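Form 7-S
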Amino acid sequence: MKNVFIKITLLFITVTMLMIPVMSSGVVKAQEINDLTETQEKQIEKVITENMSKGKIPGLSITIVKDDKTVYQKGFGYSNLDEEKPVTSQSLFELASNSKAFTALAILSLVESGQIGLSDNVTTYIPWLKVKYKGKEIPITIEQVLHQTTGIPASTINMIPVSNEDSALEETVRTLIGIELDSEPGKMFQYATINYDILGLIIEQVTGDTYEYFMEETILKPLELNNTYLFRNEEINNRMTNGYKIGFLKPQRYEAPIYRGNKPAGYIISSGEDMAKWLKIQMGTVSEVDFVKKIVKNTHQADRAVDAVGTEVFYAGGWFLEPNEQVTHDGMNPNYSSYVTFSNKEKIGVAVLGNLNSNQVQNIGVGIKEILQGDVVSSDTEDTNQYIDKLALSIILVLSILMVVVLILILRILIKIYRKQLSFKYNGIKSIVTLTLSLLFMLGLSYFIYLIPSLLLNGYSWETVFVWSPNSVQVALYSLYIIVWLIYIFFILKVHVKKEKVFSYRAL
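Output:
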């Protein structure tokens, strides 16, 4: 037995020694790449660190490619703040709206194989998806969905159900049945993320496969995007960066709701390493089969019949086309951000992935692009969520002071009632009417506060606002409700109590 134990021990040691190169291969793959000039490196890393600090972004993955070569690949910050786990080129992030280009590629592969046509009506494949314009039923085509010229309102993101079920994609698209379009289909560009969920469902209806299976087999595997995923599992979770969002002036871990039905538009998962491959595929600098190159090129063809977005910017297949053959797309999920840009002319591409919803991710990407192109770094967009967070904190502070003041006033009245210095007065029907009307007014005011995002943000709900905005917004709303009702209670007490009469007796 002793010899057997020794042999087993020796075998274990031998196997362990043999496994060291295999285990360390992951480390080799994740090594940083830097073939930039010293000046470029300093300028780029200054842009990264400054904007990362401004945005309080926990972790970033930066990828830069030139022609068919990755010239810069590096992680910054942490994928897990608590454990101080660093970001590497293999760390995984949600791509947010940069998922759309993958779905567009899949749709155009079906067009190339003759299974669908861009001019086909969506109802050819989803018969029940009927929409209206000015009250009348009107068809929308696959091309209009692809180029986001359907007229579907942007606020439909508010309708996407929280679900991880296999039926989530169909459930999401069904929310559009009978919807009133904002514009006539094909007449103007209007970004609505749910357009790409329609494309995802068309893929399922045409192929008979799930969206995820078709994407894996037809897009990801042939393109050897081996670190890009449609689902999470234990292995993927180990490399997945934690998602964060700003709240009370700092990044806070946030587990966003699962929107599987929005996956074709915003929930593909990838790494900086695969973004390098993806950029080379987009620029045509890697050797892929001819039909893939043709399809990729087709995703860069925009609908120029509609008005440009801003300064000569048009929407193609999951990409914004800018002047000088620059192709870009930014993306934001509740707890992740991304920015991808490349030049078909200069063959330079940049991908920035972050684990916080922040405008600074785009600022960093634009800044890197400008440095590489020899331009002056000009992007300095204010971070929306940080601004909202500071505003919410200011509101909370003011309301908290008011709460203290009103509570003191209420407490003073209650003490006087307890000491019998004040008592409730009842004026019969007048008191009942006053109390009823004031209560109805308060209920109406409370409902109006509930409707504020719907009225000011084109149909959004507080539930959606809470998912996408800093945690402080929710606290600010609850504080507003509390102070409103405290003031009401104070008002009721002031109106419905009176001083007790003080009787004095003279000695006879």
